[in-house]
Amino acid sequence: MIYPENAIDKLGFSEIRELIKEKCLSEAGRNMVDKIQPQTKLDQIDRFLRQTHEFKQLLLHDEPLPVDHIYAIKPLAEKVKLEGAFLLEEELYRMLLALRTVFNIIRYFNEREGQYAHLELLFEHLPIEKSIVRSIEKVLDENGKVRNNASRLLEAITHEILKSEQEARKRLDMVFRQAQANGWTADGGLTIREGRLCIPILAENKRKLKGLIHDESATGQTAYIEPEEVFHLNNKIRDLEFDRRREVVRILTEITNELRPYVPLLLSYHGLLTKVDFVRAKALFAIDLEANMPILDKEASISLIEARHPLLYLNSIKEKSHAVVPLNIQIDSTNRIILVSGPNAGGKSVCMKTVGLLQLMVQSGLLIPADERSKVGVFKQIFADIGDDQSIESDLSTYSAHLSKMKHFTTFANGRTLVLIDEFGTGTDPQFGGPIAEAVLEHLNKKQVRGVITTHYSNLKVFASHTQGLENASMLFDNEKMQPLYILQIGKPGSSYAFEIAQKIGLAKDILDAAKQKIGVQQKKVDTLLVDLERDKKEIADTKAAISRREKELIDLKSKYEKLKEEIETNKREIIRKAKEEAKLILKDANKLIENTISEIKAVQAEKEKTKEIRKKVDKALAQHQAALEKEQKQPAKSVVNNGSLEVGDWVRIEDTGSEGEILEITKNNSLIIALGELRTVVKATRVTKLKSKEKSKAKKKLSSVTADIVSDFFPEVDVRGMRTEEALGKIETVLDRAVMIGYPSVKIIHGKGDGILRRFIRDYLRKYNHVSRLEDEHADRGGDGITYAYLD
Question: Which residues form the Smr domain (predicted)?
């Protein structure tokens, strides 16, 4: 599928493998990474991609997966399979930890059944065989050592060893103290030599103590002697330890025999751990790359959106250098081969390698650093000609190596082949290399191959411009700053900017002039045209950007206008509503006046003089209404009343209600926050009159007496059973208002159960009441949901 074999290395895929291996926890997982190869079956690629994607989501958004102890079970299982073999303590302990990890992983996904459908395929319905773990736990303790009570014999031997050690130590201490009393010992305490406890004795006294000399000090002044009294006891302990070791081996052999029937299952557990470690490593690598899963396409096509070269991206993060410029490219049945031209070091090769490397990653089941809207097809073959493959052993020059690859490409390429060629046609005389490259390109195009090719040859640019299936592209270059922009532009070829770059580097002007004279007139015109096109393209791009910014500003302005219009409409409706309410009040007063007038006329039996007098009263009342209205219309809005400026702490009277209170705060928009006892209200400064000292004192006394009356009369419980909804809500509102005024924390509302209609209306009303913070039912024993407690903030 890949030709030549070293193309994987040249595209950077081997480095990707190494980075993924660093994320693995086990050697088996790392070995699996080494085996990653691009696949050609769509369903297999889709499954691998989805598993990696699901593991990425798990790592980012779910609880941590329990992978504390991923040990290789396979070599242990292979050892268990051998008759007569047994697992050592440390080997058995590693198997125990690995099995616990396996079971925790299986439980983890069982608890999330259906959430990670493709990851669940890794398990192949593996059971949790608890008997294996229980058998091992009967033998090993939590430190991985064989339990002293693993068998009756082992327990007896251990007890005897402990008893003998205590007796030996007791006798040794007695001999040591006696030797110290006699002045025979050297400095220091008891020490161990050759695994036996010994007493340090001065060399001149070593014959005075009966026993076995195990060692001497470097100076020969101290001898380490095991006393005769404890020698036989120590030998007994050593024999007991041999007995214990034999019993431990017997127990380990027995437990190994118990595990032997489970070898196939143990190998399956090993496979699960390996695959989990492998997919986890791919997911961690995807998180580092900020990679996504692209859309898989059955067709041999590529549509990369905001794609970045993985290795360049990771290096930019590590070095904290400039961000990698994203790549946007599309290869399909219409534009099969993209011919990329442009300046040296402008990003042509990086563009081509990005396409090739991301294609290899996708077909290997790896997520790619590109927008999730990207679409990637599946190619049966990937051919690449990158770099210098000259070989002394094979007697191949650079150009010969290129031609041998072209031979393979033209022979075996087809419509499902991705061809990647860097610096097409170079390595020989351009006069001949160009036409040969053009002929090869024409042959590949006839075979419907897909690919990305970079070149500087003008004849190839011209050929691509009028050949169906080929599409010119260029890497943008900033003419003013004389530096590449690393942005791929599809649709036109690019200039090599050879003279411009040479001029920037500082090559002498006379040399450049001479070079310009030597190149063909036609070639000079083509290159100049390309430079001009590049400049025009940049101007158009800048203009489009300016237009886009202007359009955004217009959209913002339109949004602000519509919002302002909506506010004006809202204010208009509010003004009309208030005007209607005032008109209702005026009509109400007028109706009342008329009714009283009619009553008086009837009472005086319509005497002429008396009727005229009553009519004058009506006219006078109407005149007073008119005068009040005109006065209100003429009165200018003021932040300060005529009787002095307002300050926090002043007492004022609200003109339209007659209420009196203290100013707590003056806001920026010339409104006042006034305390009316326990209540707070907000009014305009133009609607209040500042009280004088005497009026202030009266207002305080009046307010305190009113508050006291309210408090004394207040009862925080209201019974509305049997009432209609409007009547009940009115009564509840009165109690709530008083509770808020005096600062009472809650109100008890008895509404009964019934059909629940009254309860529903009452609770809907309470939820809309500004000062109600929460609602609770009464205790079930005392009425339950037939009583509601409204808590006030």
Answer: 718-793
Q: Are 66 and 108 members of one domain?
A: yes
329 with 418, same domain: the answer is: yes
Residues 261 and 119 in one domain: yes
- Per-residue model confidence (pLDDT) at position 86: 92
CB atoms within 10 A of CB 508: 10
Instruction: Give dist(CA 186, CA 205) in Å, integer.
Output: 10
Q: How far is CA 183 from the centre of its chain?
A: 75
Q: Which two tokens stand for residue 674?
A: 């006034």
- In this prediction, residue 659 carries a pLDDT of 73
pLDDT < 70 regions, the chain: 388-397, 429, 479-480, 482, 496, 498-501, 518-538, 583-584, 586-644, 656-658, 668-669, 676-682, 693-714, 741-743
Amino acid identity at 450: R
CA angle, residues 484, 489, 490, in degrees to nearest 5: 150
Strands 302-307 and 375-377: antiparallel
Q: Tokens standing for 737?
A: 């208002």
Does 620 carry a binding-site annotation?
Answer: no
**Domain assignment of residue 508, yes or no:** no
Identify whether residues 262 and 310 lie together within a single domain: no
Residue 718 sits in a domain whose CATH number is 3.30.1370.110
Residue 418 pairs in a beta bridge with: 382, 450
345 is in an annotated binding site: yes
Tell me if 346 is assigned to a ligand binding site: yes
Same domain, 71 and 114: yes
| Paired tokens of 251 | 């127990």
Q: Establish whether 348 is an annotated binding residue.
A: yes
Please state whether beta strands 688-690 and 746-750 pair in parallel, antiparallel, or not at all (unpaired): unpaired
Distance of CA 25 to the CA centre of its chain: 23
Amino acid 139: pLDDT: 93
Range(s) of the domain holding residue 593: 544-632
Tell whether 312 and 398 lie within a shared domain: yes
Give the model's pLDDT for residue 140.
93
Q: Can you read off the two tokens belonging to residue 466?
A: 């009028």
Half-sphere exposure of residue 715, counting CA atoms within 13 Å on the CB side? 6
Could you give the number of structural domains in the chain?
5
Domain assignment present for 534: no
pLDDT of residue 636: 47
- Residue by residue, DSSP assigns 275-314 as HHHHHHHHHHHHHHHT-BPPEEESSS-EEEEEE--HHHHH
Closest to 362 measured CA to CA, from 445, 289, 272 = 289
Same domain, 696 and 735: no
Q: Residues 754, 784: contact at Cβ < 8 Å?
A: no
pLDDT for position 18? 95
- The 3-state secondary structure of 72-89 reads CCHHHHHHHHCCCCCCCH
- Residue 343 in marked binding region: yes
- One domain for residues 487 and 551: no
Cβ atoms of residues 586 and 625 within 8 Å: yes
- CA 370 – CA 679 distance, rounded (Å): 60
**Pairing relationship of beta strands 337-341 and 375-377 according to DSSP bridges:** unpaired
Say how far apart CA 478 and CA 464 lie, in whole Å.
Answer: 24
Angle between helices 348-363 and 42-61 (to 10 degrees): 90
Task: Provide Rg for the chain, Cα atoms.
Answer: 48
Burial (0-12, 13-18, 19+ Cβ within 10 Å), 526: middle
Residue where a domain stops, chosen among 289, 311, 343:
289
The CATH code of the domain that includes 314 is 3.40.50.300
342 annotated ligand binder: yes
Residue 699 lies in a domain: yes
Domain assignment present for 657: yes
pLDDT of residue 79: 93
Q: Which residues neighbour 783 within 8 Å (Cβ) at sequence distance 6 or greater?
A: 750
User: What's the distance, CA 547 to chain centroid?
Assistant: 35
Rounded Cα distance between 210 and 206, Å, is 8
The CA distance from 532 to 525, in Å, is: 10
- Examine the fold and report which residue of 457, 479, 496 is the final residue of a domain before the chain moves on: 496
